[in-house]
Task: structure prediction
Amino acid sequence: MKIGFLGLGHMGLPMAANLVKAGHQVTGFDVVPAALETAAGLAVPTADSAVQAVAGAEVVLTMFPSGKHLLDAYRGGLLAAADPNTLFLDCSTINVDEARAAAALAVEAGHRAADAPVSGGVVGAEAGTLTFMVGASDQEFETISPLLEVMGKRAVHCGGNGAGQAAKICNNMLLGVTMIAASEAFVLGEKLGLEHQALYDVISTASGQCWAVTTNCPVPGPVPSSPANRDYQPGFAGALMSKDLGLAVAALQSTGVAGELGTLASQIYARFAEDGGAGRDFSGIITEIREHSVSAD
Ligand code: NAD
Result:
């Protein structure tokens, strides 16, 4: 397929490189010149402008920091530069309302649209093992499936435009809340004199069992591969969890859902990111909980 790939950052560049390796005709572009140089090093062909990158493309894939970047690009001439009926596939993580607005703009301009945010991080982008959560019609899903198979190991068709973003923030809101709860449980266990391993052995086989404990355990020891064993090197960075929880809160507000824990988790992760946790794995939130705990001595 002929693909215009915009946004060659931490995620976008390895995704584009995998598409090139699979034989697709990719033309990349990024507003940061250094990103174009790095792309050349990975054999990803680039253009001098976004307009050039999308010219003649069947699919325009975007991997941007935010919905504002996407809407600005769509309104700033990207949609007008593409051939009629081009499929605009956005893989960024953005606000659900912005995703729906972006899809509507694309359709109004005579194009097709899909959203497919990812989980799996930079490691998954490089290895081609991302999970895609897709918001698209059946026909659009079928068109993009061969591309998603190259860049990822799993694609879940969640519904129409915006449904991919909706699924992603619902999942990450749950993840943010459960990691805080798991961390509180381990800190409470410490205060009550429990060994980490003993508490892990109980939780991992009892009703408190969850991914935050069994895969990304916030204390070192019980799960050797968890970021806690390497001083909370990410993994999934606190800044990204804070961003996703901000999107979740926006969705809670726009839908009127009484999401008290999601809202509180967003505040806790915003503080974590400001206090030096932005570049640390989100499970490092346990150190904040310890620091904010009062000594019983
Ligand atoms: P990044 O900041 O490294 O890359 C984004 C790139 O988009 C930058 O290079 C930027 O210059 C470029 N860009 C912005 N506006 C542009 C425009 N108009 N035209 C061309 N390029 C433009 O971010 P990232 O880590 O690659 O993340 C991208 C998206 O993926 C974000 O929405 C993020 O939330 C999501 N995500 C990231 C991870 C992760 O681990 N990094 C995991 C899951 C999802």
User: Anything to note?
Assistant: Residues 89 and 144 are 8 Å apart (CA to CA). The radius of gyration is 21 Å. Residues 6-12, 29-32, 35, 50, 63-65, 69, 73, 92-93, 118-119, 121-122, 240, 243 surround nicotinamide-adenine-dinucleotide (CB under 6 Å).
